[in-house]
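DATA SHEET
Item: assembly model
Revision: 1
Owner: S.N.
Input lines:
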Amino acid sequence: MAVVTPPAKPLTAVLIGNPNTGKSTLFSALSGFHALTGNFPGVTVEKKIGRMKCGDSTVDLVDLPGTYSLAPRTLDEMVAVNVLLGRQADVGTPDVVICIVDASNIERNLYLVSQVLDLALPVVVVLNMADVAAGHGIKIDEHALSQRLGLPVLKTEAHRRRGIEPLREMIVNAAATRPASRPSVFPLVFTAECEKLNEWLTQRGHTDTPPYLLERLLLDVGGYVESHLMQHDLKSYLADARHRLAEQGCKVPAAEARLRYAWVKQVLDGVVVKPVSRAATFSDKVDSYLTHRYVGMLFFVVLMFAMFQAIYTWAKPLMDLCKEAQAWVADSVGGLLPLGMVHSLVVDGVIAGMGAVLIFLPQIVILFLFIALLEDCGYMARAAFLVDRLMTKVGLSGKSFVPLMSSFACAVPGIMATRVIENRRDRMTTILVAPLMSCSARQPVYFLLATAFFPATAYLGGWIELPSIVMFAMTFLGAAVAVPIAWLLKNTWFKGETPPFVMELPSYKWPSPRVVFSRVYDRSKAFVVRAGTLILATSVLVWWAGYFPGDHSRVDALELEIEKLSGTAADDVQQSARLAQLTHEQNVLRSELLEHSLLGRFGKTIEPIVKPLGWDWRIGVATVASFPAREVIIGTLGTIYSLGEGVEAEDKSLTEEIQDATWPDGRKVYNIPVAVSIMVFFALCAQCASTLMVIRRETNSWLYAAFTFVYMTTLAYLGALAAYQIGIRLN
Amino acid sequence: MKTLDALKQGDRARIVEISGDDAVAVRLMEMGLIEGEEIEHLGAAPLGDPVEFLIRGYRLSLRIAEARRVQVQ
């Protein structure tokens, strides 16, 4: 009889290492593409869990964000420590820790390993990028290193998938071992102080403090553990303890780095042989151009322009394809349903809502392709290096540049790109001002109004026309406003000491297709799934407000008649006249229905609010309806001015309609101040459900999404008010 | 005492001390800027700040304000 053993519980392995060690490449080589990504609860730290099989064992692989040190100052940094200590409830207690080390930069990388060893967990050390190290002429004796450390050590080249199979076995084997006890890198006075602190804490009810946290309490002046342990006289106790340590020659925090690096030197002595003088590598030569004062800057500007242009132009045909696909789906699904409420809900609510989500996909994919390539090849750090000086003027750092630049095409991928900014305050400020950058969805509004109300006066010998200047000014209005807003945020809400910009400039390498692919895939999927559902809900809500209450039977009947007429082959003058008449009647009916719908009534109610901006209720309604997605305004204006749906900004008749629109007393509604007021409103307002959902997702909090909505809408109203009131006085 | 920001391109110096015990000082030490270590100025960004250094065989970018915290000789 066969003995059936129950399947063993999956092991938990935690992957930790410095940035730029090829950690993501190793993670995907070990676990394949099927990783679950999300956020750790309550923080902005990405949680990535993959699963790998080795023989009979299943291992859950937890990927921690790249870090140089395990000395937490913020809640975000504390997550990694909590995961390693088994205190993070949503991942299992670690059975083994995989420390990935850049073999070409082993000295600095072993600093983190030294901290991980203090956690007393089974550890496997992976010397990745062994080929790069060999290229630098660095020779590492891995067996000697393994003996010195008392740990399994393995050389890998993750991007070539070399050493992956032996590593899997090593991980499973190490999980079954007990960690060897090892001497502390700290002197006896320090370990004695740790014990004393533990007693002191135990007496005050804090039992079972992990030894690593006792160390951190003594070492991290103003660190996270110290500020979040609820014990009123802890600060003064620690000050005394640190004073005692300093008197005995163990001054914190300097002692930690000094002792750990001394340990590293000792471990590596005789194990690593480095060439006497560091030969200039290919990467160094490339770098001498790419960070050059003129050549480097020129390359950067050209690259940014190319990226921007690609998001703009490559995405266009794909977005048109999305639109066509949406129209096709709407037609085919709509054809199956009888005309009426359900038909309208499905076509104008659900399908239109899904279209509003999918339309962003091409831009997200293209931008992330660029960002993943730049990040993985090592250029991203150089980009931050080149423009840091400019960004410090508003209190941000060079790392905010690419996300903000990308937001000119679309804020959604721009906000998702802020993950490269490790400082939370900088990241939040960048996220909050990113939607002010003029995205491509604002262009149709600018185009419509600028061409309709500004004469095509030519300047510079016909090179530039007035409408183009207006469009250009509108495009940069948001960025100009973002400067004081970012400054204000950094000096109020996100006030704090300037975060260090101490940053490694990694060696250049060829990007790994697996990493690039999985990064683009993860972010696109996250957007569609998480943000998509809520955007859909918002679209349906606006549809509902525009549809009810009202009797749509006459419109539907007309639709049937129009379809029947246009379906027949006969093509005489009489028939086309009849068709035009029916279409006109249907459009008038539609605009009347909209006028009497909840949305229309709402527009009339808010007319007193929008009147100071020079707007009538129609503009008010169109603006309100375009809060889920600003580009909707063209279609809504089309419906209001009885042009039917599917209007384009370039449409002559819409231009004429708005030029002719009048108030009840016969005055023209639109003039230059009104046009400017609308454009300013659209430039500054948060009319994009997708952006707000992405802010909520990336910050893990509704607060930031709500704040963005409120501050931008307020700014937009005040800006539009100023534009109109100043405009009519000048006119 | 000379600080790191005073170095010119191509200059080498030995680290003496990092002043302060705030986040910047701790980060500098964690990155391997320890007394006795040799550091080389590789060049500045186009706008003069930050500056690129070579330490422990890797390239490190520091803002001038941060480099000023490092005493060298």
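QC remark: The longest helix of chain B spans residues 23-30.
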